[in-house]
Design goal:
Two copies of one chain form a homodimer. Chain A has 333 residues and is α/β, with parallel strands linked by helices. Chain A is built from 13 helices and eleven strands. An eleven-stranded mixed beta sheet of chain A has the order 3-2-1-4-11-10-5-6-9-7-8, with helices on both faces. Chain A has two domains: 147 residues, Isopropylmalate Dehydrogenase; 158 residues, 3-Layer(aba) Sandwich (Isopropylmalate Dehydrogenase), CATH 3.40.718.10. The first copy, chain A, is globular and about 60 Å long. In chain A, helix 7 links the parallel strand 7 and strand 8. Chains A and B meet through helix 8, helix 9, helix 10 and helix 11 of A and helix 8, helix 9, helix 10 and helix 11 of B. Chains A, B: GO terms for molecular function: phosphate:acyl-[acyl carrier protein] acyltransferase activity. Chains A, B: Pathway: Lipid metabolism; phospholipid metabolism. Chains A, B: Its EC number is 2.3.1.274.
């Protein structure tokens, strides 16, 4: 199996990306196509590894560039080039820690949506008190229709089942109350749609404060709400950590105490680290595209490649397509 | 000045509520009307205090009761009774740690909105790296129009100025990106409206992860988004704390370290404690109604009463009404 890796995406590219890809090739027994600046990539490659191939791409799309414009004008940047290779079947999946917007725009442009999908979603795992929970959409669609949420629920269920090995994942709808009549018109209509779907295990509304209890496996929402949730988690996490650090600096006893429980902080940080779960997945695109966090280190890239491999092996894309076809009749717009 | 206090609202009522009210009467030099079960209230009153008066209300509205139904059927519960006293002018403001829904429903029913207001909002302070920031609406309106957000911005600015003493509070729009074109149709239209408003200091979009930097004083959003934000903060806060506790239990060194830095945790918890800032305020109702957190202790009740007093003294309600009248011509629906 050959997996395409965008060597230039992310804060620590190409170094950490190349190292993660090399490990993946070795440990997962796959071939890697590194797309990016050949000279720079070679700095991180020890020897001639037959499992690693480089496709040169001189340009890079930055996180701050308007995505649609960037993928149209920089056709030879690593993201568009990688996506074209994927489309042509040169690799089975693609992994990138680059601009989410460019990946989405390029993905739509080059791979397209598969049949029946109006809106692809971005899905990612969050830690909870129990198993990790998958949230989607975390930001691909600022505006959603109830039907989109129903499709997200179906795709999320398949993804979770295949990746986490849970037969019938519990699906929840992110809302501001647990009662059926709670929320805005989008979630109220979506609730009615979700409870009618036969091929998912819909368990009702979930409030963000209960999300972390881990009683739901797959939680759906529109991309605006999901992105608010994601960025609140990130923002509050860093804020709390900084507050603790500031307080610890106040005296020597605290500093000593902090030293003693340093492994505790590290353990919690590791648990909160969603790179552990292989990054985010674009569901609904006609291709397998994994997005790793921009701050990904080699371990995160490795995990992203691992998820991509599982996606290919379990033929999840095929299953997604079949499931979306199946529910087409069930969903009334 | 006489302030009405719902003695029966909150998890620690009536004990903590009565104690907080007694302190407020003493320290703030005001009179208090305690509304609730007279017998139970008297258990917490030491002596005959001329500044404390009890108005008997046998019934209580629980947090789990459907709010609209509850305020209609339990007319003599502490919330509806207190609101009627407020409406009749028996007190200048009301403070309650009871059901938010019942307070909103009862507030709309008994006090009504003031002129020009379509949707009252609930506003509350959050800690940040700098000064606390006011977020509204945190849950009164699941569905909002751009005009509502403009009114929230104006009301929030006045509230922040008067309570925090900041001449020209920086107003932000909660969004999933900083660029003007980001977000759903609601925030995109609201952005255009906010930047035209002359009597606020609009500074653009703010992402939840930057919210905690404290570069904005007043942040507006629809009640669905605000409630998602609020509950994510609560949920993640407790989750992180539990994770730390679990890890600390793993060995004796950690336990010792944790003991040494206990004051650090307490300091951070105190900073995160929004009861510090006097609870949440219903803005847009034709009366001064402060909602304290359900888990309020006497200090939180005291702070709620203190904010209510400031609201009365600074004649903030009058200012809100004038400002809403003023912008009426500026806002195009």
């Amino acid at each position: 199996m050959k997996i395409i890796v965008d060597a230039m995406g992310g804060d620590h590219a190409p170094g950490e990306v190349v190292l993660g890809a090399v490990n993946a090739a070795k440990e997962l027994g796959i071939n890697i196509v590194l797309v990016g600046n050949e000279e720079k990539i070679k700095l991180y490659l020890d020897e001639q590894d037959p499992r690693i191939e480089i496709v040169n791409a001189q340009e890079v799309i930055g996180n701050d560039e308007p995505p649609v414009m960037a993928v149209r004008t920089k056709k030879n940047a690593s993201i568009p080039k990688g996506l074209r290779l994927l489309k042509e079947g040169y690799g089975k999946a693609m992994v990138s820690a680059g601009s989410t917007g460019a990946l989405m725009a390029g993905g739509l442009f080059t791979l397209g949506r598969f049949e029946g999908i109006e809106r692809p979603a971005i899905a990612t795992m969050f830690p909870t008190r129990k198993k990790p929970a998958l949230l989607l959409d975390i930001g691909a669609n600022s505006e959603c229709k109830p039907k989109n949420l129903a499709q997200f629920a179906v795709m999320g269920s398949i993804y979770y089942r295949e990746i986490m090995g849970v037969e019938s994942p519990k699906v929840g709808l992110l809302n501001i109350g647990v009662e059926e009549e709670k929320g805005n018109s989008l979630v109220k209509t979506a609730y009615g749609m979700l409870k009618e779907l036969k091929n998912i295990n819909f368990c009702g509304n979930v409030e963000p404060r209960d999300f972390f209890d881990g009683n739901f496996d797959v939680v759906v929402c529109d991309g605006f709400t999901g992105n608010i949730f994601l960025k609140t988690v990130e923002g509050l996490g860093f804020f709390l950590l900084d507050q603790l650090k500031d307080e610890i600096k106040r005296n020597i006893t605290y500093a000593l105490g902090a030293l003693l429980i340093k492994p505790v902080f590290n353990a919690v940080k590791a648990k909160m680290d969603y790179s552990e779960y292989g990054g985010a997945m674009f569901l609904g695109l006609d291709g397998i595209l994994v997005k790793c966090h921009g701050s990904s280190d080699q371990k995160a890239i490795f995990n992203g490649i691992k998820v991509a491999k599982k996606f290919v092996e379990n033929d999840i894309l095929f299953e997604l397509k079949e499931a979306i076809k199946e529910i087409e009749g069930e969903i009334k717009c």
